[in-house]
Amino acid sequence: MERAVHVHTDRVDLHTHSLFSDGTLTPTQLVAEAAALGLAGLALTDHDTMDGVDEARAAATAAGMLLVPGIEITTSFRGLSVHLLGYFLDPAHERLRELSAWQRRERDVRAREMVRLLGADFSISWDAVAAHIPPGSTVGRPHIADALVRLGVYPDRSAAFAGALQSNGKYYVAHEALDTVAAIALIRAAGGLPVLAHPAAQRQRRPIPLDRLALLAERGLYGVELDHPEHVAAWVPPLRQAARTLGLVVTGASDYHGAGKPNRLGACTTDLAVVQQMARDANTPLP
Ligand code: AMP
Ligand code: ZN
Ligand code: FE
Ligand code: FE
């Protein structure tokens, strides 16, 4: 039996993905789902692109909801893969546009390489993968997973991630990525607030070390996402204590990908008052 997700009108989901990266809904459909749940608003945080923000903002305005412009940048921090969220940043910022375009090209190179390696054991081709990716959207392993699902190799994306696409598997290729500290500076330069995404997620195998969190805070990190559906509960309290000591703002969000992942929209959220403070800190007046 499906349990209803309890959400309230003072809650904002600060981490969602659309078809502009590896989610399965358009920004308009995402906003409609958030409205149906009674959320006060949501952030669109597609991987390495802000191209969906205009559509999401138009839909949110029409629905009387708050839309926080955002992005999720895959970064690399001394050998650790670190996902960084940016909020209230300017999508037109030139260097942000250049570097996100570079990251998307690097993701494309890497996806082709993974598909080439998979081709040794599965009847998969780049054309078969690419045919189902909307033009201009950020390419990721979920798109390769979809192709494996179409081939009947796996029932869904999660099974593909647990199988051939796992990050320590023989088909895995890493892509070039911005340094985390450089990405923090970039988000700040674009007028935004850098927030560390899911630092205690199961798939990372261990939480971010506290000394590294302190280093990122020293370099301009604004906040840390501590309520997340994929978090290992036991890993969170030390991070919450560190966030308090370091003066980091704590957020919660679902990392919703539509039908592409089990995470449900609104499963974790942030209080509207926190989001209003974030807007003030970014000098962004809210409507
Ligand atoms: P990539 O960025 O190409 O390495 O792919 C990783 C992304 O795939 C993550 O950021 C998630 O958005 C998504 N992802 C990770 N695990 C799963 C899963 N089990 N099912 C669907 N999507 C996933
Ligand atoms: Zn994703
Ligand atoms: Fe992420
Ligand atoms: Fe995400």
Strand segment tally: 9
Q: Which blocks of ≥5 consecutive residues have pLDDT under 50?
A: none
Provide a count of the helices.
10
Q: Helix fraction?
A: 25-40%
End-to-end Cα distance: 39 Å
Query: What Rg, in angstroms, do the CA atoms define?
Result: 18 Å
Succession of helices and strands: EHEHEEHHHHEHEHEHEEH
Shape: globular
Mean pLDDT: 96
Concise structural overview:
This protein is of the alpha/beta class and 287 residues long.
Detailed description of the structure:
With 287 residues, this protein is α/β, with parallel strands linked by helices. It is built from 10 helices and 9 strands. Strands 1, 2, 3, 4, 5, 6, 7, 8 and 9 form a 9-stranded mixed β-sheet that branches. Strand 7, helix 9 and strand 8 form a beta-alpha-beta unit. The model has no long low-confidence stretch (mean pLDDT 96). It binds adenosine monophosphate, zinc ion (ZN) and fe (iii) ion (2 copies). Zinc ion is lined by residues 17, 21-22, 47, 257.
